[in-house]
Design goal:
about 375 residues, mainly alpha, 13 helices
Length: about 375
């Protein structure tokens, strides 16, 4: 009889002994009995003692068989599709524990990816209504024209949303819902477009030195139904017109305006007012005396103003400044359905951070 056949018989006998051991377990006598105060831990369903004469390979094979049987019994208690059942059987038939851990971690990541895709799909289906878009533009133009706005390229989008919620504007998604991401994107896009239009209208007056600051401010407030052309607004418009002559790129412009305001505030509110007044007077020498204009200054936001405007005016001084452009560029979708209105030509303007070509000093700027 060959050595190979003897070895085969020996392995077959060991396998039979292992099977009998599974059917008739031999519990080991514990050397230390558990105390009454400490309940004995539940034994593992796979913690079977095998005779010491069995080889490690036979024991491992027996335990794999036991794991497979246990898995098949557990599988009958749940309802899975065919693919999931196949993956589960692959898992319980994998002998190496490290390999099973890798498989389990991989499936966890797969589940996370599926959940993220589901959330993104849900977010992408939310869309601002035409009425809500018109309301956004109303708040945005009012913000751009308020003389107490802290900055123009900071947390303006969040402030607009906060003001709309404070004013009980309908059609807004619930706070902290996943649809809020779509709302933020819509407000950010609209703010970029309308702010671009604001700058464009100021820049277009540079070649013609005859457009005084009073006439320009009156043209700007025509875009907001309840904001008046105050002296403070004229100061701000004069500053913006001055910075339009410095050749900043479109992406740089509004952060540069904020930087200028930040530096002017460094010495206190008195320095800011005095500096803006000087800029206003210099603008009058270049573009014409506003006192000679037919347009007069109006009252600021007060008790007679609508509540939504008072809410906005109370929030804009607290806008936080960004030291540099943060986030990615925002572009309006090509298929975005804009409602028809008198300001349609303005809403079609491009956002003010899409073009990096420098503007000629003193020339017009196309945003």
């Amino acid at each position: 009889m060959s050595t190979q056949s003897i070895l085969q018989r020996a392995r077959a006998r060991q396998a039979q002994e292992a099977e009998r051991a599974l059917e008739t377990p031999h519990p080991a006598t514990p050397s230390v009995l558990p105390s009454e105060s400490e309940p004995a831990s539940s034994p593992s369903p796979f913690a079977t003692d095998f005779p010491p004469s069995l080889s490690l390979g036979v024991i491992n094979q027996a335990r794999r068989n036991q794991l497979r049987n246990f898995g098949e019994k557990a599988l009958k208690k749940v309802k899975l599709d065919t693919d999931c059942e196949a993956e589960f059987r692959t898992y319980i038939e994998t002998p190496n524990q490290d390999e099973r851990n890798v498989m389990q971690f991989l499936h966890t990541l797969q589940l996370e990816s599926l959940l993220n895709k589901s959330l993104q799909t849900h977010i992408s289906t939310w869309k601002s209504s035409p009425a809500l878009l018109r309301t956004m533009r109303k708040f945005i133009w009012a913000m751009l024209l308020l003389p107490n706005v802290a900055y123009y390229a900071g947390t303006n989008e969040n402030t607009i949303i906060e003001a709309m919620r404070k004013s009980n504007i309908p059609d807004l998604p619930p706070v902290d819902s996943i649809e809020c991401e779509g709302l933020v994107k819509d407000v950010a896009r609209e703010y970029s477009v309308q702010r671009s239009t604001f700058k464009k209208k100021v820049s277009e007056t540079l070649p013609d030195k005859k457009v005084d600051i009073a006439t320009l401010s009156a043209a700007l407030v025509a875009h907001s139904e309840r904001v008046n052309a105050t002296l403070g607004l004229r100061f701000r418009v004069a500053l913006i017109r001055l910075l339009c002559t410095r050749g900043y790129t479109n992406a740089e412009f509004w952060p540069k305006v904020d930087e200028e305001l930040f530096n002017l505030r460094a010495g206190g509110s008195g320095d800011l007012v005095t500096a803006l007044q000087i800029i206003y007077e210099d603008d009058g020498q270049t573009h014409g005396d506003p006192a000679q204009s037919k347009h007069k200054t109006g009252d600021g936001v007060g008790q007679g103003s609508p509540s939504w405007l008072r809410n906005l005016s109370s929030l804009v001084p607290h806008i936080q400044r960004f030291s540099r452009r943060q986030g990615t560029k925002r572009k309006r979708p090509v298929d975005f359905d804009m409602p028809a209105n008198d300001d349609d030509s303005e809403t079609r303007a491009q956002p003010d951070d899409d073009t990096d070509d420098p503007e000629p000093a003193g020339g017009s700027a196309t945003d």
